[in-house]
Design goal:
Length: 807
């Protein structure tokens, strides 16, 4: 009888098998054919791959079900056989290796993005993974491995869906990262690890995209924020074209070069991805032979509450600076904002998100509770808006469980939920949501009897919240206690009691603390004086996070100074950065007042901020001021989009923000087209785009098409799996300036060369551009493509430059 899987990886490092696709291609898998269909048509071929890897020493055999979800199978007309294909995948693996190895059921991405980046809802995405996982678990898989995910939101939905079916089946969750250390949508390894840890993945790591050196760096970053076991599943180097065939140059020996460093990080599973064969797995097995390294889970940076968004992370507690939670996205006392919410507008939310983050907020509180609205739908809209505008993690603030759940589905990472109290009803309704969706929680030190007058009373309620949370599996470090700020003008002694409660909660319960600071001064004159002084006292008492208005200078001055004095701003780096220019400005008397933006500047700013709601009114204003459609485009819109491109190149914004800016641009163009006569806006060029024959992936191509259109190009999109003959025919008939070819798989790279050769043989004079996950600049040069682009923004920049130089 096998040792239970999680127990086994705590005792020794296990070896996971190598590439399934590489082996099936050698067995005659045709380009464009569904690998998963072989589970039904050629099960013995699949079984032979499993046996070869087991004989090479693999402890974990991965099923041939990577593309076995409804979305992927529908490309081959196989969605009706989903359950049959997935069950067969598990049974083939089990029959091939018996009980001598663990059978890991493979689940890959759908090829779609979750809204608002894509068009699938969270519920729809979760349902896709739930359907596949049910079949795999029913067939008897020992564990599930989620592989090669690009979108943190998609893999988060997958883990949550699997946990709905089985709270106990071991889950491996892996994302793929570029050589810049982020996923395609901008997620760094730390954010991925925080999010996946929180939703219940048992083993976290990375596969594909990089060789062993690159994977090591990814896992090193993950280890900073998670105590989970890690997995390394590297490619055998990066693909190259040799004698017309795509090969991965990494030798078996090179695959083991980082073993000692991986083991030091707490890597408990090592396997191979693209290009690896039984020879590579045998080398990994031999290199691990005799190395017994028991794993002891240790939470990194003990006591830190880690939070994440798609592109960023934040910490509460430990030795980190006190977190600043921006409080301004809250309609309480804000009539204009409340009115906007009732009208379904979000411009205030976007503006406050940008301004508070610029002022120093490390987290943003999102509260949309106001009479007369659909709060769950509005919470979702607000989360989408804030997440698209800034990269700080969110605090979801609502008394409605329905609104909280909608917000928890909408977030990109691990949020903080504000809040739960010591009331039984609150604990029963809110804590299960926090657990299911992988959040941290603010616990209010109040109960059915109200707010205790003493620090002991508040600490007792905190202890009750802690006990209830831990009982359902929420860890101690994900509970942050609000000791509650009472108005000092009404209850003067309570200020001191709140400070005492902070100390007691930290000393006796080892929990992090938070306060809504500004309540202290309500009803008094010169409120900033009282608020900032109390803030300083609370920080000295050990406060870990504060809900404040970061645009209030006095509060931020106190925070920055206190972080230096409390040794939470090493070398006073943050303080110096904030005030380095202050002395010069003071000496000059005052800083030069900012000059209001003209309409062109406002248009550019709207594109940069992704203000879809406001852009149409700005276009109207520009037209009323006498600008022509061409001037609106060239002097206002395009400079904004070009600035987005510059920020993207510097890793200051990421693909979701780029797409939001593109959608804003599209809204503006829709209005401009109403004003234009035929041909009044000259096209920058005509581009034909296609994913080559045999390849069903088109996410990257679709993004390139969108951005090309927004930069003034006429785009003809032929879709995916397009035969070379059709590409050649359309390129000739449409008289295009350039042909863009995309391929995601190593098996379809060679088709790019075939298309380029046919274009030339047929005398079609056009530039050619190629791109895709497996494509490189060297490959482009080798097959004679005119240019290569590693991402959508680079594709736009390079094709513009190429066509500008054309005679």
């Amino acid at each position: 009888m096998k040792t239970p899987f999680l127990e086994a990886i705590s005792e020794r490092v296990l070896v996971l098998d190598g590439a399934m696709g590489t082996m099936l291609q050698e067995q005659g898998l045709k380009p464009g054919q569904s690998p998963e269909e072989l589970n039904l048509t050629l099960p013995e071929v699949v079984a032979g791959v499993h046996r070869a890897y087991r004989e090479a020493g693999a402890d974990i055999i991965v099923t041939n079900t990577f593309g076995g979800n409804r979305e992927k199978l529908s490309h081959y007309g196989l969605e009706g056989r989903l359950r049959e294909i997935n069950r067969a995948g598990v049974e083939i693996a089990r029959n091939a290796v018996g009980e001598t190895a663990y059978v890991a059921a493979s689940i890959g991405p759908t090829g779609k993005f979750v809204e608002p980046v894509g068009d699938l809802t969270f519920d729809a995405m979760a349902a896709i993974f739930r359907e596949q996982a049910e079949a795999l678990i029913e067939a008897g898989a020992d564990l599930i491995t989620l592989e090669t995910f690009l979108d943190i939101k998609e893999i988060r939905a997958a883990v949550i869906a699997i946990r709905e079916i089985s709270p106990t089946i071991p889950i491996i969750a892996m994302m793929t990262f570029d050589d810049n250390g982020r996923s395609v949508l901008g997620t760094p390894p730390e954010a991925a690890a925080i999010t996946l840890d929180a939703v219940g993945a048992d083993i976290i790591g990375s596969n594909c995209g990089l060789g062993v050196d690159g994977i090591h760096e990814i896992l090193r970053a993950m280890r900073r924020v998670t105590g989970r076991p890690l997995i390394s599943q590297a490619n055998a180097g990066l693909p190259i074209l040799k004698d017309g065939k795509t090969i991965f140059p990494g030798t078996p020996e090179e695959m083991t070069a980082y073993h000692d460093r991986l083991l030091e990080l707490g890597v408990r599973i090592i396997g191979g991805c693209c290009g690896t064969t039984p020879e590579h797995i045998r080398a990994i097995r031999d290199a691990l032979s005799g190395k017994v390294t028991p794993f002891t889970p240790v939470a990194p940076e003990q006591g830190t509450t880690w939070l994440s968004s798609r592109a960023g992370i934040a910490a509460i507690g430990g030795n980190h600076p006190a977190a600043i939670i921006g409080e301004r996205i809250n309609p309480t006392g804000k009539k204009t904002f409340a009115a906007e919410l009732r009208e379904g507008k979000i411009s205030y939310i976007r503006r406050e998100a940008l301004e508070q983050t610029a002022a120093g907020a490390t987290l943003l509180d999102v509260n949309v509770g106001t009479p007369g609205i659909d709060e769950p739908a509005t919470m979702e809209q607000a989360v989408f808006c804030v997440s698209g505008a800034v990269s700080v993690p969110l605090v979801l603030d609502s008394s409605s469980p329905e609104a909280l759940e909608r917000g928890l589905k909408a977030v990109d990472g691990k949020p903080l939920v504000n809040s739960v109290s010591g009331e039984e009803k609150s604990l029963l309704r809110i804590l299960p949501l926090v657990k299911k969706y992988g959040a941290a929680i603010i616990g209010l030190a109040l109960s059915e009897e109200g707010i205790p007058e003493t620090a002991d009373g508040r600490t007792a309620i905190a202890a009750k919240i802690l006990e209830a949370a831990q009982k359902i599996g929420i860890p101690r470090h994900d509970i942050v206690i609000d000791c509650l700020t009472l108005t000092v003008s009404a209850e003067q002694k309570q200020a001191v009691e709140t400070l005492a409660a902070i100390r007691k909660v930290k000393d006796t319960l080892a929990l992090n603390t938070v306060l809504g600071v500004s309540n202290i001064s309500f009803g008094l004159p010169a409120r900033p004086l009282i608020s900032s002084t109390f803030f300083a006292m609370a920080l000295q008492a050990g406060l870990d996070a504060a809900i404040i208005n970061p645009k209030e200078q006095a509060m931020m001055d106190v925070w920055r100074a206190a972080m230096v004095l409390l040794q939470k701003d090493p070398r006073a780096a943050g303080y110096i950065e904030a005030y380095r220019d202050k002395q010069t400005a003071d000496a000059a008397g005052a800083q030069t007042p900012s000059v209001p933006l003209d309409i062109q500047g406002l248009l550019s700013r709207a594109i940069i901020d992704g203000d879809r709601e406001g852009i149409r009114d700005l276009v109207e204003q520009a037209l009323c001021e006498g600008l022509t459609p061409l001037e609106v485009s060239n002097e206002g819109l395009l400079p904004g989009l070009e600035e987005v491109g510059r920020r993207f190149a510097k890793n200051q914004v990421y693909l979701p923000q780029v797409m939001l800016s593109a959608e804003t641009m599209q809204t503006a163009f829709t209005r401009l087209k109403e004003e234009m006569n035929q041909g009044s806006l000259a096209t920058a060029g005509k581009i034909l785009m296609a994913t080559v024959e045999g390849d069903i992936h088109d996410i990257g191509k679709n993004i390139v098409c969108t951005l090309l259109e927004n930069h003034g190009f006429e785009v003809i999109d032929l879709g995916k799996n397009v035969p070379a003959a059709r590409i050649v025919h359309e390129a000739r008939e449409r008289k295009v300036d350039a042909v863009g070819l995309s391929a995601l798989m190593t098996t379809t790279m060679a088709e790019m060369e075939n298309v380029i050769q046919k274009l030339r043989a047929e005398g079609v004079k056009t530039f050619t551009m190629i791109g895709g996950a497996v494509v490189t600049e060297d490959y482009a040069r080798e097959i004679g493509a005119d240019l290569y682009a590693r991402d959508a923004m680079e594709a736009v920049a390079r094709i513009k430059k190429l066509l500008e130089k054309a005679p």
